[in-house]
Every structure is written in structure tokens, then in C-alpha cells.
């Protein structure tokens, strides 16, 4: 387990003295500093702070129409900044039903009416389009209502996912909110051996470090090994930081990336509005990087030279196995896939073509290929790599998500085994729940398609297998915060918005369990009933977790739970049921990201205090098990001071104090307005 730093310890900063005292920042914090709005003068943003952000661009795909309905529901009629918004059609592009075509038509007409940049079905997967067309660009902040927005980090653009309500808010007001995550540093050293790819790096990371080490963190990749990775490999790794549990995966802007852009400019047929000599020169001159003494929550070092080809699965990205071991098991496959935004770029297609050239897809195996975009296919056709795959027997699908998301042709059927270069292999995602899905690099996928079983490309190319080496890594012991830049006493404290309490206090009720999912918080049988009254929501809150919760918990209490609280589905009722119960604050070791966003969007406050969870677990270590336990401990959150004090009893002795991230005035106003939708309605009304 990576050892986390104490977080939130430099919270009471002097806004007046910020220019005089250099407060070190990570690259993630620096980019957010650029795109945060409404900050007090001199405010330096840090991890754990809540801020309002105005991203450079916001992308939505097939979900653009549901977002538009939310947008209209807010009372909005005109997108505030149509240059900020991008719409693509990519998920269900094989679906020619009247209903789907009607939805696509509505999205296209809405985009045209609003003057929004629109990319039709067949142009490519939205994330690839964002990179190709320069919306995602070095040192920018770009978001999308899709979980793989992390991919933009491969080109030094901070990309992170948002939910539909956030997207509608950005359309209407240009902004939404974000809590800056703790930042983890992953230092890459050495160089990959031939036959090992960027996909192997992220597959290994997901499998070897799977105990929520980077859950809800921002990741920054650093070290000399970064320079040895192609831009395509960086995009692959950043894309799958989502599967690792992170909210972003950011690579530095270095000479490799700048040269990549210069080559792209030379290939463009005409001047491009976003990718041109001026914009690239500006990015090169910015030369932004993390400060030398920037504070990271966690740090990990990987020796790339010790890595060998790996696969994830079956049916989990948390299971990572060397290909040599899987090959020895003779795992027969039925389907192979070279599709998705993860590994269907030109270099991926060319690597697969090198393996399969002059051979045929094995009898009984279906090998599906789809480019990440129409431009990728054009480039692959020009090099001959595309035709090599077709000649070998690959079946062509249109540029789009398709089988990666479980849509269209070629899905896994009962009892089948598939190997794919996509990003997810959750049970049932690519077809039947009774199928087995593995993830691997394009070269491994192509080799497996030829042999009919999971295979190392060396077996097909008749070259020696790589020597087996144990993966070398180290978990870095980070210095204690006291050894870093001194805490600056605040000469000003953040304002408290009108109507927002400056102090929040209540008795702690301990629900001691990790991974409490949204079905445990709000039962699924009520989720799609639109007329459940508030009283009923309060009654069934946490029903599937503990039937006694209903009688033990009272309005005004503060709930404390374990790690990854609110994991699972995206149902907003998990947050609104807590509010119906009268819960004013939920504290946990960590939260599922969707629950965190739904909480703020519906005016439920949350705090991550892992030290408090540890204290409570130690306190009740020898006590009889209670799913819901009243503790007699009281928490007081002093919002202006960004400080939480835990006492034994309402006015008893102090058990612990914990500085926390600042709850900025902008976010307070969202809470006062009853959530993001209420804030948007007030803003556009004003």
C-alpha cells in the first residue's frame, strides 16, 4: 500500500502574502490555477481545495441530448460560450434504428442552432477528435461527460470527467466546480524492451497496485523514462488511469510532444485554428512543470526495463498476468478486438500489422478492427497497415466505440473468450456476462488472433521470448509536511457566503464498512420510481446497508464511513436520500467520485478524513460489531479556518484536529442554492 502524506496541512494561507511567499505547486495545481474562477486575490490553489473552474473545452457525445434536456430544464436557452463546447457522435454509431437516428438528428440540429462545433458519426471517438482537432492541448483544462477524459493528459492537457449536470451547467454558465484531488507522482525510469508497449505499463500498474492506491487521485507521470515513450503510448496510459481509479493522468510537455506537434503541423493541409506554429510555440515557451518541492500525496517509481508483456483479466483490470504465463495455459479465444480510444491509433494498427503480416486469422476466431477516427484510418490505409489486417481476415467496423461499450456487431456471446486492446473488461461489458474478456496490447491481440489462443507476439514472429524479469518498483517515503514550505498564517480568511453556516457540527455516527455502494445507500427498487416522497427516501436511506440505520440516525447527525463510500452506480438519490434523512455532512476515508459529484450537485457536503476513520476503528477494535454505531464524538467544521475538530462529547476534550481543503465562496453559494442546478438557475436568472 502506498503511504499517503498527511493532506490539507497548508490550508490557512495568507492571500495578501501569496506574492511574497512562494508556495510550491504540482503541475495539476498550476493548470487548475489558470482555469479557476472567482478566487480571492492572491489565492494559491492546492489539493483538497474546492474551486469553480471554467475549462477551455467541454465535450459530450451521444449523451449530448440528455445533457440538452437538463440544460433546458434549468431554464437555459442559449449556450454561454459556444466556442467552449464540442459535440461528437461516437458510441452507438452502428445503430441505424429510427429512434437512434432521431436522437442523432436532434443533437446535430441543436449543435447547429447553438453554433457549436459538431462531429458526426463516423468522424471518430470523441476523445480522439479532441486531441486531433486541438481542443485538448498542452497546459489546457478540458473536460468531457465521459470517464475516459483522462486521456488528454497524454498530451499535457489536464483532462477529467464530469457528469451530465456539470455539462449542462458549463453550457449555461461556462463553469462548474471541482475539488482538486490529492496528487500522486509516478516516476518512470529505464526504457521498455522491444515487444513491450505503453499498454503493458498501465495494465501492470492496474494489476500490481490495485488496493485503491490512487483512487480519486490526480496522477503526474515524471522521470527519464517518460522521454522514451511515444505520444500514442502516453495517450494509452493516460486513458486507462481511469481504470486505475484516478481522476486524471498527466504527462509533462517535453520535446517529444512538441516535436510531435510540429510534425502534425507539417501534415495539415491548411492552417489549423488550434494546432499551428503560434499555439505550439506558446506551449513550448510556457515550459510549465511541477515545482521542485511540490507536495505529493504518494510517490511510486517503476523501472520500465524490467517489464514484460502483460494482460488484464479475465473480467477485471485488477488481475494482471504476464503473457508468457497465459500462453502456457493455452487459453483458446473466440474473438479479438483492435478498437476504441485506447489503442486504435496509427502506431497501434501498425504494430498489429507487423505481427499479422503474411498470416491469416485462425479458423474459428473473429478479429474486429475499428480506427479511433476517420483520420487514423486514412493514415493507416496510406501506410498499407490497414490493408494488411484486412487481408489477414480482420472484420472492419466504423470509427467509434462499438464493442468496447457493448454496442453493435461482434459482441462476446455465452461461454466465449475475447482478447481486446480496449480499456475495460468488466463482466458483461463487451457482451454476455458468461463470457471472459482479457485486455492486452495491439501486438498481443494480433498474435492471439493468428494462433487462436492468448499468445506472445514472439510466438508468431518466431523470435525469442523476452527474458523473464521481476518488475522492479519502489514506494517512495515522502517527507513529512512540516519539513516542506512553512505554513503561512492567514491574514485574511475565506468569506462565508450569505446563508451558509460558518460552523457545522453534529454527533458522529459510524458506519464501519469499506465500499458501501449506492445500492446500499438507496435501494435499486426505488431508483426508477419518480414519485417517491422525501419521507420515504429518508425511511429507506441505507436500508440495504443496515435495517437499523433508520432508527439509530437522526437529523443533524454526521455520518462517518470507510473507504470508497458511494461506489457503484451514478444514481443521484444516494445523495438526496441522505439529505432527506437530515444528514448535513458525510465523512469517509475516501469517496466514489460519482457520489462526490452528485453530493455537491445536490447540496450534500462531504469530507475525506482517513485519520478519523483510523481513530474510530482503533477505538472500537474490541467492541461488538455494530453496522451503525452512535459514537458520542462530535465533529465541528470551522469553514473559514478550514479546520475540523473532533471532541468526546459536545464540549468535551479534543480527540483530534484536522486541517481540510478550503470550501471556497463559489462552492458555498452552490450549496446555499440547493445544488448546482439551483445555482445555475439563479445565475442565468440574474
TrEMBL record:
Biological process, per Gene Ontology: lysine biosynthetic process via aminoadipic acid
Domain Aconitase A/isopropylmalate dehydratase small subunit swivel: 495-611
Cell compartment(s), UniProt: Mitochondrion
Catalytic activity: (2R,3S)-homoisocitrate = cis-homoaconitate + H2O
Record carries keyword 4Fe-4S: no
GO molecular function terms listed in the Swiss-Prot or TrEMBL record: 4 iron, 4 sulfur cluster binding; homoaconitate hydratase activity; metal ion binding
Cofactor: [4Fe-4S] cluster
EC supergroup of this enzyme: lyase
UniProt pathway: Amino-acid biosynthesis; L-lysine biosynthesis via AAA pathway; L-alpha-aminoadipate from 2-oxoglutarate: step 3/5
E.C. numbers: 4.2.1.36
InterPro entries documented for this protein: Acnase/IPM_dHydase_lsu_aba_1/3, Acoase/IPM_deHydtase_lsu_aba, Aconitase/3IPM_dehydase_swvl, Aconitase_4Fe-4S_BS, Aconitase_4Fe-4S_dom, AconitaseA/IPMdHydase_ssu_swvl, Homoaconitase_mito, Homoaconitase_swivel
Aconitase/3-isopropylmalate dehydratase large subunit alpha/beta/alpha domain location: 48-452
Cofactor comment text: Binds 1 [4Fe-4S] cluster per subunit.
GO cellular component terms listed in the entry, alphabetical order: mitochondrial matrix
Ranges in a coiled coil: none
Family: Belongs to the aconitase/IPM isomerase family.
Function description: Catalyzes the reversible hydration of cis-homoaconitate to (2R,3S)-homoisocitrate, a step in the alpha-aminoadipate pathway for lysine biosynthesis.
Name under which the protein is recorded: Homoaconitase, mitochondrial
Amino acid at each position: 500500500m502506498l503511504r499517503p502524506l498527511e493532506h490539507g496541512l497548508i490550508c490557512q494561507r495568507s492571500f495578501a502574502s501569496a506574492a511574497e511567499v512562494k508556495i510550491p505547486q504540482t503541475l495539476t495545481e498550476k493548470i487548475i490555477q489558470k482555469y479557476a474562477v472567482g478566487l480571492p486575490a492572491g489565492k494559491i490553489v492546492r489539493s483538497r481545495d474546492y474551486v469553480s473552474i471554467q475549462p477551455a473545452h467541454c465535450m459530450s457525445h451521444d449523451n449530448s441530448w440528455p445533457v440538452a434536456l437538463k440544460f433546458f430544464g434549468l431554464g437555459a436557452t442559449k449556450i454561454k460560450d459556444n466556442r467552449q463546447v464540442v459535440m461528437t457522435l461516437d458510441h452507438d454509431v452502428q445503430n441505424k434504428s429510427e429512434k437512434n437516428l432521431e436522437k442523432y438528428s436532434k443533437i446535430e440540429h441543436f449543435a447547429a442552432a447553438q453554433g457549436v462545433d459538431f462531429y458526426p458519426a463516423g468522424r471518430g471517438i470523441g476523445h480522439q477528435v479532441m486531441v486531433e482537432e486541438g481542443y485538448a492541448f498542452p497546459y489546457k483544462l478540458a473536460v468531457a461527460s465521459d470517464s475516459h477524459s483522462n486521456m488528454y493528459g497524454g498530451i499535457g492537457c489536464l483532462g477529467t470527467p464530469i457528469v451530465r449536470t456539470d455539462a449542462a451547467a458549463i453550457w449555461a454558465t461556462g463553469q462548474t466546480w471541482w475539488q482538486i484531488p490529492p496528487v500522486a507522482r509516478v516516476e518512470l525510469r529505464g526504457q521498455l524492451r522491444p515487444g513491450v508497449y505503453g499498454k503493458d505499463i498501465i495494465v501492470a500498474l492496474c494489476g500490481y497496485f490495485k488496493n485503491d492506491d490512487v483512487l480519486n487521485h490526480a496522477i503526474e507521470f515524471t522521470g527519464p523514462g517518460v522521454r522514451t515513450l511515444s505520444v500514442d503510448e502516453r495517450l494509452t496510459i493516460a486513458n486507462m488511469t481511469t481504470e486505475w481509479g484516478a481522476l486524471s493522468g498527466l504527462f509533462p510537455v517535453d520535446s517529444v510532444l512538441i516535436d510531435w506537434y510540429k510534425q502534425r503541423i507539417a501534415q495539415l493541409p491548411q492552417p489549423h485554428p488550434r494546432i499551428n506554429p503560434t499555439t505550439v510555440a506558446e506551449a513550448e515557451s510556457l515550459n510549465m512543470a511541477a515545482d521542485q518541492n511540490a507536495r505529493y500525496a504518494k510517490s511510486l517509481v517503476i523501472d520500465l526495463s524490467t517489464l514484460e508483456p502483460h494482460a488484464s483479466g479475465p473480467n477485471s483490470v485488477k488481475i494482471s498476468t504476464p503473457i508468457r504465463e497465459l500462453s502456457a495455459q493455452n487459453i483458446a479465444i473466440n474473438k479479438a478486438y483492435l478498437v476504441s480510444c485506447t489503442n486504435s491509433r496509427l502506431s497501434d494498427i501498425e504494430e498489429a500489422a507487423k505481427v499479422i503480416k503474411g498470416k491469416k486469422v485462425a479458423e474459428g476466431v473473429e478479429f474486429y478492427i475499428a480506427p479511433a477516427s476517420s483520420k487514423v484510418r486514412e493514415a493507416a490505409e496510406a501506410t498499407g497497415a490497414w490493408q494488411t489486417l484486412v487481408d489477414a481476415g480482420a472484420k472492419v467496423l466504423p470509427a467509434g466505440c462499438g464493442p468496447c461499450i457493448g454496442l453493435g456487431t461482434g459482441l462476446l456471446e455465452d461461454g466465449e473468450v475475447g482478447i481486446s486492446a480496449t480499456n475495460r473488461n468488466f463482466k458483461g461489458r463487451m457482451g454476455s456476462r458468461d463470457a471472459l474478456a482479457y485486455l492486452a496490447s495491439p501486438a498481443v491481440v494480433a498474435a492471439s488472433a493468428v494462433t487462436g489462443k492468448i499468445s506472445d507476439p514472439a510466438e508468431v514472429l518466431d523470435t525469442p521470448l523476452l527474458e523473464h524479469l521481476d518488475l522492479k518498483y519502489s514506494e517512495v517515503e515522502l517527507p513529512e509536511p512540516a519539513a516542506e514550505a512553512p505554513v503561512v498564517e492567514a491574514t485574511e480568511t475565506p468569506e462565508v457566503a450569505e446563508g451558509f453556516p460558518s460552523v457545522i457540527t453534529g454527533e458522529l455516527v459510524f458506519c464501519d464498512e469499506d465500499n458501501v455502494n449506492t445500492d446500499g445507500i438507496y435501494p435499486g427498487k426505488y431508483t426508477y420510481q419518480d414519485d417517491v416522497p422525501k419521507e420515504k427516501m429518508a425511511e429507506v436511506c441505507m436500508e440495504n446497508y443496515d435495517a437499523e440505520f433508520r432508527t439509530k440516525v437522526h437529523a443533524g447527525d454526521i455520518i462517518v464511513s470507510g473507504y470508497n463510500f458511494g461506489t457503484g452506480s451514478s444514481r443521484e438519490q444516494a445523495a438526496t436520500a441522505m439529505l432527506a434523512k437530515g444528514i448535513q455532512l458525510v465523512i469517509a476515508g475516501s469517496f466514489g467520485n460519482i457520489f462526490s459529484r452528485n453530493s455537491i450537485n445536490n447540496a450534500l457536503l462531504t469530507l475525506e478524513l482517513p485519520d478519523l476513520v483510523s481513530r474510530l476503528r482503533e477505538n472500537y477494535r474490541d467492541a461488538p460489531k455494530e453496522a451503525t454505531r452512535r459514537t458520542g464524538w462530535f465533529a465541528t467544521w470551522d469553514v473559514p479556518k478550514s479546520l475540523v475538530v473532533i471532541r468526546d462529547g459536545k464540549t468535551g476534550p479534543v480527540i483530534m484536529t484536522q486541517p481540510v481543503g478550503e470550501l471556497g465562496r463559489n462552492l458555498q453559494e452552490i450549496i446555499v442554492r440547493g445544488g448546482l442546478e439551483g445555482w445555475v438557475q439563479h445565475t442565468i436568472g440574474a
